[in-house]
Design goal:
With 242 residues, the protein is an alpha+beta fold. It folds into two domains: 43 residues; 142 residues, Protein of unknown function (DUF3299) (OB fold (Dihydrolipoamide Acetyltransferase, E2P), Beta Barrel), CATH 2.40.50. It has five helices and eight strands. A five-stranded mixed beta barrel has the order 3-4-5-8-7. It starts with a helix and ends in a 6-residue tail after the last strand. 15% of the residues are buried.
């Protein structure tokens, strides 16, 4: 073998070894680069998982002491409702400064007392048997006047005349029922039945009548005629009618 051929072959082998090493070094460098990319770039690209807040139900381990204010705040508010309460006190001239007795024992009364409560009569309903009665009961303070001897001032509306004298008439709070104005409520008049021959018919002037009062729901011919009736004893006429 010639020396030149041996040296050529050796140079070829050395060159091949160097090229192989360079390839290996290049592969290793690429691998290292990819590893660094995975370590530093992937956390920036991949989104972080969203953290969920966990709700824990239950009381505090060491709750603050309750005060009266916090205890009242926890109590549910009671339902709102409207209640109507009627308070009635029996009328007595000894306790009611607006009432006093006359020298002959009659209780001085006024329509301010008799008409001091709402008094309305129910109306008929088609197809139903009608029984007239008050929508609200008469207060006990007014019922206590039943069978009391009273004296009352008002205006006369004659209902029955005998020999020119009025034996039955309405004693009214005002003259609205006579000629004009708003009709009176049923507690704004008294149905008077005079004893004896009757009294002079005197209209449009205030009169004073004495007698025994009756309180109740008085019905005649299917109609409530009054809640006050008076057994009249006498009447004070104005001086210019005497």
């Amino acid at each position: 073998m010639k020396p030149e051929n041996n040296s050529s072959r050796i140079m070829t082998i050395v060159s091949a070894n160097i090229g192989g090493r360079r390839k290996i070094a290049g592969v290793i460098g690429v691998g290292i680069g990819l590893l660094f990319a995975a370590l530093f770039l992937l956390p920036m690209i991949v989104p972080k998982p969203t953290s969920l807040t966990r709700v824990i139900h239950g009381g505090l381990i060491s709750p603050p002491p309750e005060t009266n204010a916090t205890m009242r705040a926890k109590e549910p508010a009671p339902p709102q409702s409207i209640k109507w309460t009627v308070i009635s006190i029996p009328i007595d001239p000894r306790t009611d400064p607006g009432l006093r007795a006359t020298t002959d024992g009659h209780l001085q009364l006024s329509f301010d007392k008799l008409a001091s409560f709402p008094a309305f009569v129910n109306g008929p309903v088609p197809g139903i048997t009608y029984v007239p009665k008050l929508l609200m009961p008469i207060p006990s303070s007014i019922k206590s006047l039943d069978n009391r001897e009273i004296v009352l001032k008002g205006f006369m509306l004659p209902l029955k005349l005998e020999n020119g004298l009025a034996t039955e008439f309405l004693l009214m709070r005002n003259r609205n029922n006579c000629c004009f104005g708003k009709p009176l409520r049923i507690n704004e008049w008294v149905d008077v039945h005079m004893k004896g021959d009757g009294v002079k018919s005197v209209m449009d002037v205030p009169l004073t009548v004495y007698g025994t009062l009756h309180v109740g729901e008085f019905v005649k011919d299917g109609r409530m005629t009054s809640i006050y009736q008076l057994d009249g004893e006498k009447m004070d006429e104005p001086e210019y009618f005497r």
